[in-house]
Design brief:
The complex is a heterodimer of chains A (about 325) and B (about 300). By secondary structure, chain A is mainly alpha-helical. Helix content of chain A is about 70%, strand content about 0%. In chain A, helix 6 crosses helix 15. Chain B has a two-stranded antiparallel ribbon with strand order 1-2. Classes of the chains: A mainly alpha (about 325), B mainly alpha (about 300). Chains A and B meet through helix 2, helix 3, helix 6, helix 7 and helix 8 of A and helix 1, helix 2, helix 4, helix 5 and helix 6 of B.
Chain lengths: ~325, ~300
């Protein structure tokens, strides 16, 4: 049967089968198929990973080596290059990088706490209670969850400016209180994993709504809190659009805004800034400082994050 | 027992007798306040601003009439900005779907530790965003120093200006979006493929289904709704393009400063000091965004409102 199956196919078709085939016994070109399949997967792996490997070895060599055609792009300099690059970045604006790091940390921490504290009870209530206005709230949540930040950022700026909050940390932190994706995730989580009978039983035993949430909903939401923690930290740490509109003073910048100003250090700045040793190695190091914390979280918490992303999609 | 039923009876009637607000709103108040302050409020405020003039930075409401709208619609940069986004979306959505589905089917063809390792590798760039992403691509697309420089030379590029410019921008932004997003989408599609019951696949094989037929006739329709979901989500996100052209235009100067509508809105507000006209574009982009979001929710039944 196997042979008749593959006899009817042209060699090209058989090759394609061999590459995609889940059951190798069905065709005779398993070997080649497997080689090609691996080759394609490896090419994509190179595309996704090599730019980051390149970034990682970037600070080890002086910028002249970056442009040296006689050296391989993957030529590794010495680890002391990292120290030099860091010292050069630290000279930028007399230690601005330290301020950016501290700002990023506390902006992100406040945003994470604020958005989780508001999203979880809201999602819980939307999943467990039926009341007037629920449909409207669900629709507004879904629509604003799909709408990207860049749509609303100018209106938000105009509002913050009317409230005289522009160029303060509050203009960056407060808007994170509205986190519709978190509300939706919490809603999906509670409507799939919280047994209705448990709530009913507790209600019969005399628990009020608040006690139901505090003693049953919240303790059951540990995985949810972890997932939301990862996702909100990621978006707060990488937040660029909002601070870009809101913040003017370099001392108030977070890391992404700071990195962006490092990238422009040569291109658009007045003459005296050009004397600063901000070149490719320094920029690469800046990018790494921004990427590495999130990348580490992603590798170790991939399951949680993907389940979170998929929960936005999958509802079975 | 009697006390219990009594308590229940009291519980059931008490809220109705004393206050008419459902207890759910006690939990929802902070969220609704935040929604009003940071989403609905700004949206309505910008609608108001779009009819206002500014005197020394202070809005004079309804003073402009339709002037701001006329200014924007007569702007020679408006149509190019929309055209740029249309080109970007027309390329990035099919490109993303084709390669994500391709990679997912390829990874799922033989499930092993290796395919899990590949999935993790593909997922790592999800950690790169905003300025870091632009930085990575300014390095990667620069024929002088790129890690793929021999490949770029092979294609005939010698200078970054030949790669990063208005003509190639839709491809560059497509590549950037794919670089960051593909891993998450592959993970979602892979999960969907694993959700296909083994019996269906076994039955198909017994019925004489070839591996390609299996991928195309059995697996693809079962992940079809995921394809629609991805297409619409990527579309809704990419229409609002802002960060990539904004950063690239300040660094390389070969990308237009008003590349996308959102960038044009920024340009009006902060470069030309015309907040009213900026608000006009914001209102337009909000209408487009909300419409797309509505289509996403309605046409894919991924988002359920009833538990």
């Amino acid at each position: 049967m196997q042979t008749t199956e593959s006899k009817e196919k042209t060699p090209l078709q058989r090759l394609v089968f061999a590459i995609f085939g889940r059951h190798p016994r069905l065709n005779g070109m398993t070997g080649i198929g497997e080689v090609i399949r691996w080759a394609i997967l490896l090419i994509f792996a190179v595309f996704f990973i090599m730019p980051l490997v390149f970034l990682l070895i970037g600070p080890t060599k002086p910028y002249t080596a970056w442009y040296d055609r006689s050296l391989s792009p993957l030529h590794i300099g010495s680890l002391s290059g990292y120290v030099t690059a860091w010292n050069n970045i630290a000279m930028f604006g007399e230690g601005l990088i330290g301020k950016w790091l501290v700002n990023s940390l506390w902006y992100s921490a406040s945003s994470v706490l604020l958005s989780i504290a508001i999203a979880i009870p809201s999602g819980y209530v939307l999943a467990t209670m039926r009341f007037r206005g629920r449909q409207v709230i669900m629709w507004l949540t879904l629509i604003s969850m799909i709408l990207p930040t860049s749509t609303l950022v100018l209106p938000l700026f105009l509002e913050m400016s009317a409230a005289h909050l522009v160029d303060t940390p509050w203009s960056v932190i407060l808007p994170s209180a509205f986190y519709p994706f978190g509300v939706y995730l919490a809603y999906v989580y509670y409507s799939t994993s919280l047994p209705k009978d448990l709530l009913m039983a507790a209600k019969v035993d005399g628990c009020n709504d608040w006690q139901l949430f505090w003693y049953i909903g919240l303790p059951m939401g540990r995985v949810l809190i972890a997932t939301l923690g990862f996702l909100t930290f990621n978006s707060a740490w990488n937040n660029y659009v909002l601070p870009f509109y809101m913040l003017n003073h370099k001392e108030l910048y977070n890391l992404p805004l700071g990195i962006a100003s490092l990238m422009n250090a040569q291109a658009g700045s007045p003459g005296f800034l050009r004397e600063l040793p901000i070149n490719e190695p320094e920029k690469a190091l800046g990018g790494l400082i921004m990427i590495i914390p999130v990348a580490l979280i992603f590798v170790f918490a991939q399951k949680y994050i993907v389940s979170g992303l998929a929960a936005g999609a999958v509802k079975e | 027992m009697a006390a219990k039923t009594e308590a229940l009876a009291v519980k059931a009637t008490a809220p109705r007798r004393h206050l008419r607000i459902h207890p759910a709103f006690l939990f929802l108040t902070p969220y609704l306040a935040a929604m009003l302050l940071f989403s609905l409020g700004p949206a309505l405020y910008s609608l108001l601003i779009s009819f206002a003039t500014f005197k020394k930075g202070v809005p004079v409401f309804f003073a402009a009439g339709l002037d701001n709208y006329i200014t924007v619609f007569k702007d020679p940069f408006l149509w190019p900005a929309f055209w740029n986004v249309i080109k970007f979306v027309a390329i990035s959505v099919p490109f993303g779907i084709i390669f994500v589905v391709f990679l997912s089917l390829l990874l799922h063809a033989r499930v092993s530790h290796a395919s899990n390792a590949f999935r993790t590798l593909y997922f790592i760039p999800a950690a790169v965003s905003g300025p870091a992403l632009v930085l990575v691509f300014l390095f990667t697309l620069n024929p002088d120093l790129s890690v793929f420089r021999s490949f770029l030379h092979m294609l005939g590029f010698v200078d970054i200006k030949e790669v990063v410019n208005n003509n190639y921008a839709p491809f560059v932004f497509t590549l950037m979006g794919f670089y960051v997003g593909a891993g998450s989408w592959v993970a979602i599609f892979y999960g969907a493929l694993q959700g296909i019951p083994e019996e269906i696949i076994e039955a198909a094989i017994i019925d004489g289904c070839s591996p390609l037929q299996l991928a195309w006739l059995i697996k693809r329709p079962l992940i079809g709704r995921y394809i629609a979901y991805m297409a619409l989500n990527v579309l809704a996100g990419n229409v609002q393009l802002f960060v990539e052209p904004q950063l690239m235009s300040t660094v390389t100067a070969t990308i237009s400063k008003t590349y996308s509508p959102n960038l044009l809105a920024y340009d009006y507000a902060f470069k030309r000091g015309n907040f009213g006209a900026g608000a006009v574009i914001s209102v337009m982009m909000m209408i487009i965004g909300v419409t797309l979001a509505y289509v996403v929710i309605k046409s894919t039944n991924f988002y359920s409102i009833e538990a």
